[in-house]
Recover the amino acids of this structure.
């Protein structure tokens, strides 16, 4: 695959992750961060970096768990 395309995916993941850190609210932060980590998984796969893939997979699972908890908490408050 084209190295410029692979690097672009990595940079988009980086910018998305940085944007998530500047967002307001836990829900939005976790959602955007989960998307960024998913992009990092793709990037890690393309460059053959298994530690990146493993770490980001764990992060996506943790963010998904906490997002679900937040959604259930919001439903109970309604």
């Amino acid at each position: 695959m084209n190295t410029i395309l692979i690097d672009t995916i990595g940079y988009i993941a980086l910018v998305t992750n940085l944007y998530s850190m500047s967002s307001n609210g836990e829900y939005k932060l976790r959602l955007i961060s989960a998307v960024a980590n998913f992009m990092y998984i793709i990037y890690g796969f393309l460059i053959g970096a298994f530690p990146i893939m493993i770490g980001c997979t764990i992060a996506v699972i943790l963010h998904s768990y906490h997002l679900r908890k937040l959604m259930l908490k919001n439903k109970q408050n309604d």
